[in-house]
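Forwarding these from the shared drive since the link keeps breaking.
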Amino acid sequence: MLHRLAARAMARRLHRALKREGLRRGPSVADPDGRNKGIEIPAVWPPAIAMEMTQLELARLEERAEESVRKLALPSCPGILAEISREVRAEAPNVRRIGDLVTRDVAASAGILKTVNSVAYGLRGAARSVQQAIGYLGLDRTALLLAGLLLRNAFPSADRPVLARFWQASAQLATAAGFLARALGVADRDEAYTFGLFRDAGSAVLICRYADYDSVLAACPESATVTDHEKAHFGADHAVIGAVLARDWHLPEEMSDAILWHHADFVLALDAAPIRLEAVRLIALGVLGDRVIDRYRGEHESAGVAGALKHALRLLGLAERDFADLETEALTLLAERDGRPMPTMRLRTLRGLG
């Protein structure tokens, strides 16, 4: 749930950050006279609440945003995830009880074991029980992976080709983000992977709610942002929906913040970001992941994506030539995951680049 006090504090921090950077009030394009320092500010919900509003105006905006999301009837947090989250937050978590909770769900047990025993984790010996898997992962990472496993179950795609394509894209982003996080050492791999799965989950909500979502999105003009287009047609955008869903499902605060702000690419260019560095890094990893997926699909990047990529590389301390090497390895990983022929490359871990 978007807590109003937290939202107001975030708005004030953003407004101060924008003033420090010399940016003008409200959404705009790159300013030819240089007052905006060439930074493009997309017209998405978080920057909008950063305008100079009265407390009453801000409260009303927050209420409208949250009401529009709640009308969509978001999937509630699965009982098993809620119980495990409570246990993880306990003063003395009971690891055996968490293992028992996971074991009760056959699909969750199989998913956790399959994930831990995959090539990505490189265990010398396979985990033969859920308790062994949890012992390797730790409690927080177990909860993250479980959330990702349960997310897709909340949106069945058997009779929805659009949703099936969406989950394929989300899985590709999660794989790329997790790989890049581990290679660069700038974020936890499992948190980056889960962020990749949840980042655009708000779109899954809209797909299930509106049969024409895909066609409406395809008609989005180049002059408009995706989030503005969604709000104009459906009353809410997938970034806000995804952030509410992430908080309802007990994901870390930095992840829900990253989901909320992931279309506000300009935060990558600010010297003093209005959200935690962990959240900004997740956004940057998502931008790099998008670039990898565009290349994987043979698509050309837009000017906006190119600009966001430049800021993401700078924030992560990564040179373009080094990213080109990582990009090739990520493409190979995706090809292996999807069973497509590509040359095998050895995973390199680049330390000290974050």
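-- next protein --
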Amino acid sequence: MKKEESALDGLWAEYARTRSSELRDRLFLHNLELIHQEVGRMLVHVPSSVEKGDLESAAAAGLLGAVERYEPSTGVPFAAFALKRIRGAIVDELRKMDLLGRDTRQRLVRIRRVEQELKAKGVEPEGEEIARLAGISHEEYLNVERAYHASRLGRMGPEESDEDGLPAAAALEDETPAEQAEKADLVNKVLEELSRREQLLVTLHYYEGLTLREISRVMGLSEGRISQMHAEMVARLRRRL
């Protein structure tokens, strides 16, 4: 392992000195897994209408740009540097798309109206109940939520939102310490209310870095079911926040 790391460090040093296109391409190919990793994580947050190939093309451009701009002397690991640029390129691609078409916008309006009506009655909205009252299927409800979160990613940009379309830490700096503490307590409360299966999903996806496909194998469930569970959790957290 140390020998491989030493060889890679030498490759970066030589590229920094020569800017050789051949070395650039070798470094690009060596880090292709970063594309698969980030696209895999982002796909679960976008509607099914988004083509995986479009995100991969954007991610590849981001990776290439990262290779060309990376400075080993900074001491920042390349993966950390590259993932930020890859994700930024994907978000730029999402920004160009009209993820909330007319039909989706109409469904979203009905969903939000139902949520408000349930909250006014003191009822905590749940996905299946919201879908039923909005006159759509549960799968349509999940697709609308994915489209909504993906559109937020496109509007806010990678520095202002996390991968679920919820405000990132940097976007919360204007909140008072008391407001931040209150929101953190609410997030923790929601997480504590998750079932054991949902808590395992959160741990594997957000702490261990597994994709939903990998999680489906670990948990013995279909990838579609894992994606559904994830979308429901994100929607639940958004409603509470």
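The chain has three domains: 2-96, 98-172, 175-241. The CA atoms of residues 117 and 123 lie 9 Å apart.

- D.
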